[in-house]
Structure formats: structure tokens, C-alpha cells
Design goal:
Length: 180
């Protein structure tokens, strides 16, 4: 039976167990998880937060991380500006990025979700409105969600991966984990 760990990755930490090759060590998984034999299935950038799945099963790890399996990954995206219907339609039909057209995404404007505060908080500009989008993708290019929202005119201020398949970050504070 595969061991599956659900971890709420805090902002500013790396999705790996070590930080070799830098003068100043940054926070890593080893600062939060002391379980031998589990490895992350996919990554989240240092400036992204939310659900990271770890497992001791290499086949499951590949199935979660490999875009060919098209496992849905849902993100709560705080963006600069109030997202209009035209931008949502573009996200739903695929967005042209430098590395090609993305697959169609599920995209909905949402009210600000009841999530943990970010530390440090995002920079808010009083004269520029902001909004939230729930975006579900089935591929995983480098910084894809940020590039998609920017391509439709709404730069990302905060990015939270909320779910991977049926697994969610619900009930997990940043830095907490549980077995699935």
C-alpha cells in the first residue's frame, strides 16, 4: 500500500528536501517533514503555496506529476485587476504561451476564498482592484498558471494550489501535513 502525504507548502520554501549550492540555506521539505522514503510528486515554485503530494510509490509519483495522465490540479489565483469574461473565455479555450498553446482550463471568477493569510502579505495597491480566479489545469508547465493569467492581462499576486485530483489542502495550515 502506497504511503501518501498531503502537505500545505508555505510561501517561500522549496519543494525539495535539500538546498545545496546556495550560500544561505532556504526552507525545504526537511524543515517540516521527517519521514524517510517519501518524495514530492511534482513541484510548487518557491513563491507559490498550497497542496504538495508526497509518496513512497514511484509509479504513483509519476502518475501524479506526469502531464500525460492529465490529473486535474486546481489553483486559487489572486490577480491584479477584476477579471472579465473575455479573459475567462481565453483561459477556457487555451492560451498561447512562448512554449505553445495550453490545454483548455476550467476557469471561474470567485469571491476571495477563506484561506490562511500569507506571510509575508502580498503587496496591495490601493488604486488598482484585484480579484480571484479558480483555475483547473491538466498539464504542468513551468510557472504555467502565472504565465496564463499574465497572458490574458491579469498578473498573479498570490498562487495557491488547492487540489490535485481528489486530494485537497482543506484543513491544513501552512507547514502542516497529514496522511491521505
Amino acid at each position: 500500500m502506497a504511503r501518501v502525504i498531503l502537505f500545505n507548502k508555505p510561501y517561500g520554501m522549496l519543494s525539495q528536501f535539500t538546498d545545496r549550492g546556495t550560500a544561505d540555506a532556504r526552507a525545504t521539505l526537511s524543515d517540516f517533514i521527517d519521514l524517510p522514503g517519501v518524495y514530492p510528486a511534482g513541484r510548487l515554485d518557491r513563491d507559490s503555496e498550497g497542496l504538495l503530494v508526497l509518496t513512497d510509490d514511484g509509479r504513483l509519483q509519476a502518475r501524479i506529476a506526469d502531464p500525460k495522465f492529465k490529473l486535474p490540479k486546481t489553483y486559487l489565483v489572486h490577480v491584479e485587476g477584476e477579471v472579465d469574461d473575455q479573459a475567462l473565455d481565453r483561459l477556457r479555450h487555451g492560451v498561447a504561451l512562448k512554449d505553445g498553446l495550453t490545454l483548455p482550463a476550467e476557469a471561474d471568477r470567485i469571491d476571495a476564498p477563506a484561506v490562511w493569510p500569507r506571510d509575508p502579505p502580498i503587496r496591495v495597491r490601493a488604486n488598482i482592484p484585484d480579484g480571484w480566479v479558480r483555475l483547473t489545469i491538466r498539464e504542468g508547465r513551468n510557472r504555467q498558471v502565472r504565465r496564463m493569467t499574465a497572458a490574458v492581462g491579469y498578473p498573479t499576486l498570490r498562487l495557491i494550489r488547492w487540489s490535485i485530483g481528489d486530494w485537497t489542502a482543506a484543513g491544513l495550515a501552512p507547514g502542516e501535513w497529514r496522511e491521505a
